[in-house]
């Protein structure tokens, strides 16, 4: 399976459109044998914002496992790095901005297609 390495700064990656989303995500922290349940709050071609009960430091490498709405049978595996981490006192959860660093070509295409279809204005009949 071919994979895509994503290079560039956080600012460059944020140029991707993002859409609000609510779906379960599993964060896996390589080397620590840590599996963290999370909830995706938004998704874009360059990253994802998640909330969780676990604090993860900026710079932490993670693997995200999730399914896109409408294709729950297919699991995507995306490598990423925590670029922003803070405690949301209102929700009593940690929020993490995760920049994607590597994913398969198919996963990248599926994410881009989902974001594009979710951010298009509704068509008039």
Reported CATH architecture: Beta Barrel
Strand content range? over 45%
Mean of residue pLDDT values: 86
Name of the top-level CATH class: Mainly Beta
| CATH homologous superfamily title | predicted glycosyltransferase like domains
Separation of the first and last Cα atoms: 41 Å
The helix/strand class is alpha+beta
Helical stretch tally: 2
Uncertain segments: 6-14
| Rg calculated over all Cα atoms | 14 Å
E-strand count = 7
Domain module count: 1
Q: Summarize the main sheet.
A: 6 strands, antiparallel, barrel
> What is the H/E order?
EHEEEEEEH
Categorize the overall geometry: globular
- The CATH topology label is Thrombin, subunit H
GO molecular function, one term: cyclic-di-GMP binding
Pfam families: PilZ
Protein name: PilZ domain-containing protein
Domain PilZ: 12-116
Task: Describe how the helices and strands are arranged.
Blueprint: E1 3-5, H1 10-13, E2 18-29, E3 34-44, E4 47-52, E5 61-66, E6 76-88, E7 93-104, H2 105-119
Antiparallel strand pairs: 1-7, 2-3, 2-5, 3-4, 4-7, 5-6, 6-7
What does this molecule look like?
- The chain is an alpha+beta fold.
- The chain has helices spanning 10-13, 105-119; strands at 3-5, 18-29, 34-44, 47-52, 61-66, 76-88, 93-104.
- It has a 6-stranded antiparallel beta barrel.
- A hairpin with a 4-residue loop joins strand 6 (76-88) and strand 7.
- The radius of gyration is 14 Å and the shape is globular.
Describe this structure in a few short sentences.
This protein is an alpha+beta fold and 125 residues long. The protein is 15% helix and 50% strand.
């Amino acid at each position: 399976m071919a994979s895509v390495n994503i290079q560039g700064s956080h600012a460059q990656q944020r140029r991707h459109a993002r859409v609000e989303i609510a779906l379960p995500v599993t964060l896996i922290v390589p080397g620590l044998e840590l599996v963290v349940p999370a909830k995706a709050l938004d998704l874009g071609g360059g990253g994802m914002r998640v909330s969780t009960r676990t604090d993860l430091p900026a710079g932490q490498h993670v693997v995200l496992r999730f399914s896109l709405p409408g294709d729950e049978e297919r699991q995507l595996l995306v490598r990423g790095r925590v670029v922003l981490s803070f405690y949301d006192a209102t929700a009593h959860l940690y929020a993490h901005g995760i920049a994607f660093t590597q994913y398969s070509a198919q996963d990248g295409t599926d994410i881009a297609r989902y974001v594009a279809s979710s951010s298009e204005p509704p068509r008039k009949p």
